[in-house]
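Researcher: Structure for this, please.
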Amino acid sequence: MRNKTVEFAGKKIRIEEKKIGELEKIVADLFPESKGNIQKVDLGKLLEQAGFDLLYKKLPVIFPEIAKDDVKNAYMSEIEALVEAFIDVNFTGVKKLIGPLMNLMQIGMQPGAPGSPQK
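Model: Predicted structure, token format:
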């Protein structure tokens, strides 16, 4: 089993490789309409929600040891490191998608983006 430890908002978070069934449950919890099928995740709908609220709601689903206050006290680089570690540990072959996903996150954080506190 692969694992990595990442510093996040002053905490050390250990990311452990998940079993397929656990990953399906995370996908189902994050995107209820998908019923755990990653192919049914509507990325367009996700982009409409892009913003800090998305981070507060979705990150604790993937990482139960963090709370909304931890997200508020984290640097974007720490969030990126956390997500990269999760993908690295669980989806080694999907690493090429990290760059585009991070770009989408950054676009959602720009002033004027839906959900952005910088309107």
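Researcher: Any notable elements?
Model: The longest strand covers residues 3-8. The two ends are 43 Å apart (CA to CA).
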